[in-house]
Design brief:
Distance between the termini: 44 Å
Bound molecules: adenosine-5'-triphosphate, magnesium ion
Oligomer: single chain
Strand content: 15-25%
Number of domains: 2
Order of helices and strands: EEEHEEHHHEHEHEEH
Number of strands: 9
Strand order of the largest sheet: 5-6-7-3-8-9
CATH class of the largest domain: Alpha Beta
Shape: globular
Number of helices: 7
């Protein structure tokens, strides 16, 4: 299933937040969203996820969701949002129970997603017994359990220290390489964007409009740290972001 954003604009009262965003999110691809703080990235994610309705424009779901998809649009939050009193498998079984899935089918799904996120040995652990990186892997496992068409990830690694982030980047690349998933991934970190994104959408300062879409066709598994091609792209992205941030500052001075 692909997602198409068709001329999305959004305002909160008098505040225009997003302007005329048209974008394709193709199945099996990771689309990274970058842009200055406050430009509307989280808002766009909420509109895609249907948590809010755009003032103008449409979010279209094209084609059929994957087999066994319980929830086409599934969020992964920065703060993991795990229930502290439920074990790792208990947190995952909860979302399956919500969809009436119990017993052997639930167990098989839980085993599968724990294996994919390398958490099989921790199925009975409570969240407080896990590191931050592992908690986020549980949140990813829980999202995968509903076999979403698109995972909506809002700065999922930003609560983690830099070493853990790098390890989780490797984990996400490995996870995607074994079984491609579709994601919209919001980040402030351009190194993350060039490591993970098939497409990087640069939003302008508020009201966020598409400034540029950069496609990176190098396979995720072939991208490494210190990769010269990626550094060139990252520098280009940084130049765009700097321009937007400077222009936003100047507009503030004009007020
Ligand atoms: N529910 C809301 N009501 C009113 N204004 C809102 C609401 N949510 C967001 N805004 C405003 O919309 C603008 C965009 O916010 P949003 O959180 O989408 O930006 P962002 O790009 O995710 O920022 P950041 O990079 O800091 O996470 C901001 O000016 C924010 O104050
Ligand atoms: Mg945000």
């Amino acid at each position: 299933m692909d997602i198409r954003l068709d001329a999305i604009s959004h305002a909160y009262g008098e505040t225009e937040v997003l302007r005329d965003i048209s974008l394709e999110i193709p199945a099996g691809r990771i689309v990274c969203l970058v842009g200055p703080s406050g430009c509307g990235k989280s808002t766009l994610l909420r509109l895609i996820g249907g948590l809010e309705r755009a003032s103008q424009g449409r979010v279209l779901q094209l084609g059929t969701p994957p087999a066994d998809c319980l929830n086409p649009l599934t969020y992964i939050f920065q703060d993991f949002a795990l229930l502290p009193w439920r074990s790792v498998q208990g947190n995952i079984s909860l979302v399956l129970e919500d969809h009436g899935i119990r017993g052997a089918r639930a167990d098989a799904t839980i085993d599968d997603v724990l294996a994919r996120t390398k958490l099989s040995d921790f199925s009975n652990a409570l969240p407080r017994q896990l590191s931050g990186g592992m908690k986020q892997r549980v949140a990813i496992a829980r999202a995968l359990a509903v076999n979403p068409a698109v995972m909506l990830m809002d700065e999922p690694l930003s609560a983690l220290d830099s070493q853990t982030r790098e390890l989780l980047m490797d984990d996400l690349v490995a996870l995607w390489t074994r079984q491609p998933f579709t994601a919209v991934y919001v980040t402030h970190n351009l190194a993350e964007a060039v490591r993970l994104g098939h497409y990087i959408v640069v939003l302008s300062r508020r009201p966020g409009a598409i400034r540029e879409i950069v496609e990176i066709d190098k396979p995720l598994g072939a991208r490494g740290y210190g990769d010269a091609d990626l550094e060139v792209i990252q520098k280009h992205l940084w130049d765009l972001m700097r321009e937007e941030a400077r222009a936003a500052d100047e507009e503030l001075l004009d007020v």
